[in-house]
Amino acid sequence: MYAATNYYLDDVEIVLFAPSPAIRRTLREALNNVGFRTIQEFIDVDQTRDAIVTYGPDLLILDLDHDREGICSVISDIRHGKIGSNPFLVIMLLTWAPEVNAVNVAMQTGVDDIIMMPISVRLLEQRIDNLINNRKRFVATEDYVGPERRAYSSSEDEEESNENNFKVPNSLRYKTTGDKSAAAHKDVIEDASQLITQHRLTELTTQVSALAAQAKNQAKRLNGDNNPAKTLIKVTRLLDQISSHVDAQGNDNLIILADSMHRVVNVIAETDDPAHTLWDILVLSGHAMSAILWDRAGASELVITALDQAMAAIGTEGG
């Protein structure tokens, strides 16, 4: 069996959630035949949560057909750093009755793979081999952390996408191959977690800039006859999320920019001019924040310009 000769599997920690005794027995035998030896089995979702903290598994296998809502909650909490010390552990789901809606919901939690049961030992080997050698890069958005789901039509498209995704630790690969670059050490996890925050902040600030530009342009098309209230509500919600993530970055310029953007929105909300030039300052501030996050050339100049324009405009409005 190729797994026994190509990989070292003895030290891999597996946590298995499967309430059915028959399914547990089937999976345990299949995993043993692949070559895994350390398998912790659980029949309760809460026990599984505790086991993730206690054992720090390299591979988590969950039976989706039992307590789907609870399982999806566990995966989401792992990916968002609410359970355990490794948000990037490899997660595999099993289902005997695949339903499109249930599978789609599960995919949106950030799971690595979903296997339709029953499964042969050979197929299980292939899927695990794929998670060891070809695990997808991660993306982080406003509400999703997990493997990138997009397919690419060309290598150029995939290369361009690499700016928006990132490689994460894979302790399953480290344990089985000895590849130290995949090890899930604390500092590596912290670096990857910081990347998640950066990606989220970039998406949020991009949304703010887009909404601001949209509000300004719409007001111009309607000759100023436009109520920006809904846009302001959306922007305020996004800015609240930005502020919560900015604190985690610990960057003074980001904190100052976020505060300035809040003040700009407050001034816009108090004016009767729906085509207010302060929308432009929000667009500029969003670009400045993205430049800081990715340490781009000219970031400092963008920040200074955005803050100077915001303070001047706010001062004028206040006067």
Overview of this protein structure:
The protein folds into two domains: 178 residues, Rossmann fold, CATH 3.40.50; 130 residues, Up-down Bundle (Four Helix Bundle (Hemerythrin (Met), subunit A)). Helices cover 59% and strands 10% of the residues. It is built from 13 helices and seven strands. The strands form two sheets. A five-stranded parallel sheet has the order 2-1-3-4-5, with helices on both faces. It has a two-stranded antiparallel sheet with strand order 6-7. Helix 9 packs antiparallel against helix 10. The protein is elongated and about 70 Å long. The N terminus is likely disordered.
Q: Can you give the mean pLDDT?
A: 86
The CATH architecture designation of the largest domain is 3-Layer(aba) Sandwich
Low-confidence stretches: 1-5
Main beta sheet: strand number and arrangement?
5 strands, parallel
What is the CATH superfamily classification of the largest domain? Response regulator
| Strand order within the widest beta sheet | 2-1-3-4-5
> What share of residues are in beta strands?
5-15%
State the end-to-end CA separation.
79 Å
- Please trace the helix and strand order, writing H or E for each element: HEHEHEHEHEHEEHHHHHHH
The helix/strand class is alpha/beta
Principal-axis shape equals elongated
The CATH topology of the largest domain comes to Rossmann fold
Radius of gyration computed on alpha carbons: 24 Å
- Helical element count? 13
Compute the number of strand runs: 7
Layout of strands and helices, then pairs:
Elements: H1 2-6, E1 13-17, H2 21-34, E2 38-42, H3 45-55, E3 59-63, H4 68-79, E4 90-95, H5 100-107, E5 113-116, H6 121-133, E6 138-140, E7 145-147, H7 155-161, H8 171-177, H9 186-221, H10 229-249, H11 252-270, H12 278-293, H13 299-318
Parallel strand pairs: 1-2, 1-3, 3-4, 4-5
Antiparallel strand pairs: 6-7
Helix pairs in contact: 2-6, 9-10, 9-12, 10-11, 11-12, 11-13, 12-13
